[in-house]
Amino acid sequence: MSSFNFDKLKFSESIDEETEFIPLMTTEDEEQMEKEETPIALPILPLRNTVLFPGVVIPITVGRDKSIKLIQDANKGDKTIGVISQTDDTVEEPNQDQLFEVGTIARILKIFRMPDGNTTAIIQGKKRFKLKEITDYEPYIKASIEPYEVSKVPTDAKFKALVDSIKDMALKIIDQSPNIPTEASFAIKNIESSSFLINFITSNMQAEVEKKQEILTETSCRKRAQILLRHLNKELTMLELKNDIQSKVKTDIDKQQKEYFLNQQMRQIQEELGGSPQDLEIKEFEKCAKKKKWKKEVKVRFEKELGKLQRMHSASSEYSVQVNYVETLLDLPWDAVSKDKFDLKEAKKILDRDHFGLKEVKERIIEHLAVLKLKGNMKSPILCLYGPPGVGKTSLGKSVAEAIGRKYVRMSLGGLRDEAEIRGHRKTYIGAMPGRILQNLKKVKTSNPVFVLDEIDKVGNSHQGDPSSALLEVLDPEQNEAFNDNFVEMDYDLSKILFIATANSLGPIQPALRDRMEIIEINGYTIEEKVQIAKNHLIPKLIKENGLNKKHISIPDKAIEKVCDEYTRESGVRTLEKRLAKVVRFAAKSIALEEECETKISLDKVFDILGPGHSKDKYQGNDVAGVVTGLAWTSVGGDILFIEVSLSKGKGKFTLTGNLGDVMKESATIALEYIKAHSDEFGIDIESFDNWNVHVHVPEGATPKDGPSAGITMLTAITSAFTQRKVKKNLAMTGEITLRGRVLPVGGIKEKILAAKRAGIKEIILSESNEKDILQIDESYLKGLQFIYVKEMKEVIQHALLKTKVENAKSY
């Protein structure tokens, strides 16, 4: 087994076959060397970049002329020389100050010339010496030396453990280092001497000359071992870290190379099959672009973006974003529009077929078609239909689209909080897409659909922006011809779209947005209208959905009216549809079970199917003084209410009950004060107001009530209570009052009139200003009713109160 440095011994191939291997040094050999006398003087060979240790064999390449002369002379003599490392390896001819103080006596084992002309010597260290003085520099350095004593090798267990640790650490380094042959581990394992093991490992370790010289100079064997162990530990840590980094880099490079080769193979296969998917995709884009109708600037932009796509690598992250953008440009309809139908009669027929009532909306659509027919081109109106739920605002959009021959698209705005939903995202973001306006146009493939913006009053806002502000541009006829979507980054013309917005309330809508729309109010349906809707729309639809036909079930108008009146409380017809569906399902169940069932649904049958309903108030007669019938408007239609006045002995206290609002309380106060001011005209003793407490009550106390329309009703009720005169039979009234004695108009007349008719009222007192509202109501609804129009509050008393008093009239 050779003791050479396997990492450095590159000359072995040049040694002839007769060269013998030098055996490893044993403990006996070391002891023998230590006993040898140290010469007084020796030729000194300076070493540039290494340190020779006792017992260690190293090859050295001799290049300086003086060094070659020294080696040759020594080899002819006793082959013994002194070897000392230079403090500065750049010095060509060092003096004593440029050499370390401690060196090693060496024996020349072999000299030979290398193929490149250099002389190489194999030398073995013997023992340490100390340099005293250089005596000569020519023809090479000669110096007087003295022995350098070192301590004996310890034999305790602690030192043995230290040496074992050094050996284990050295073996790990050999295993981890790719530059050291594995044979080196056999040499270390076979070294028996502890001091030689330390010298051998120190000589071959990767360290600076100064660090090796420090170990050579150290006299204590234990300390030499400790210094060596610290260095080996540091070297092993660095080696492990280096190997870990190299392993990771190699893995990444291998993965990239693998992907590259696989991509190259895939591309080769694709070319064999007829081209790569990227090329085929771009050809498909070019083919589609030839069929598009678009402006010149859009075409130029498309060609530019397609060219950019061609230059991109399909594996890059931006490729998919660019493909998405190019596809969006192709999918948008741009100048593609559907042809409008200008048959106004047919359009009106379709609107009437699908929706009952809604006269104002239908007229506005027909007006738009008429102007479009005459002019040929105009900006579409932006309508906003507002009213209670279930009156057909959303479904009206479909009918309008069919009537004018356009595509229909609906976009729900309820709960929308992100401005990007309207304007889109910047295409630099991952997952970017255009806003929902342009996305919906992509679906319908035309630039002039009927676009329903549902629940525009329920648009929210958040830290991501205010969508209602983004809608300002969409719904402004002066701006939307150049709508700019963040994703498309080009102007898009929305002016050809017929926008129909729907809302339940105008309050939450931003004022600027509300100002841009044409507001059309859709009131709730009356009972009569609901009956017609049920007959013409709901019942036929429900019969078909439940697998029946007209022969199986018939629901007369009276039964429908009973369902509307007693089983629903709504402005629209959604609940009505649910109740009628239950009636139809009852008939379907009876047929399926082969039970006997009358095809005509009677009023009693409605009760059996739906259970007890809530009956509305009917007229209750005029037998009691101080009780007058009023008319009220609610969100679910009109209703009648009773104003009750009671007088009790007291000091003129005025009490109001029945969950009344402030406006209604003020109306009662005005009525009482007016009666006090005109008590002589009504035949009431003025002192009665101080001696009797007045209590006004409106029944159904759990229901909040407010508004000025009960003013004349309260006036009549208080006057009747004080005079004990009968109220005219089958009479109801509604109107606001003032302290001057004027009767002012009120709203909700249509709903109030129809409620009065259902309650059995024959005569109705109204303000003269409300006569125009009566003229707008269908005459069929007014049959059997008589209207009395008044200007002054006195006229109300004249028409409402009879001269006769009630039975058992009291005197006040």
Task: Give an account of the 3D structure.
With 812 residues, the protein is of the alpha/beta class. It is 44% helix and 17% strand. A hairpin with a 5-residue loop joins strand 4 and strand 5.
In brief:
With 812 residues, the protein is α/β, with parallel strands linked by helices.
Distance between the termini: 142 Å
Mean pLDDT: 84
Rg on CA atoms, Å? 55 Å
Shape: elongated
Q: Low-confidence spans: pLDDT under 50, at least 5 residues?
A: 1-21
- As a percent range, the share of strand residues is 15-25%
State the total count of DSSP E strands.
24
Specify the number of helices.
29
Q: Give the proportion of residues in helices.
A: 40-55%
Strand order of the biggest β-sheet: 1-3-4-5-6
Structural class: alpha/beta
Largest β-sheet summary = 5 strands, mixed, barrel
Which SSEs are present, and which pair or pack?
Blueprint: H1 27-35, E1 41-47, E2 57-62, H2 65-76, E3 80-85, E4 102-113, E5 119-136, E6 142-147, H3 157-176, H4 184-190, H5 194-204, H6 209-217, H7 221-273, H8 277-291, H9 296-311, H10 317-331, H11 344-354, H12 359-375, E7 382-386, H13 393-404, E8 408-412, H14 420-423, H15 436-444, E9 450-454, H16 467-474, E10 483-484, E11 491-492, E12 498-503, H17 511-516, E13 518-521, H18 527-545, H19 557-567, H20 574-592, H21 603-610, E14 627-634, E15 637-649, E16 654-657, H22 662-677, H23 679-682, H24 688-691, E17 692-697, H25 711-723, E18 725-727, E19 731-733, E20 736-737, E21 743-744, H26 749-758, E22 763-767, H27 771-775, H28 779-782, E23 786-790, H29 793-800, E24 801-805
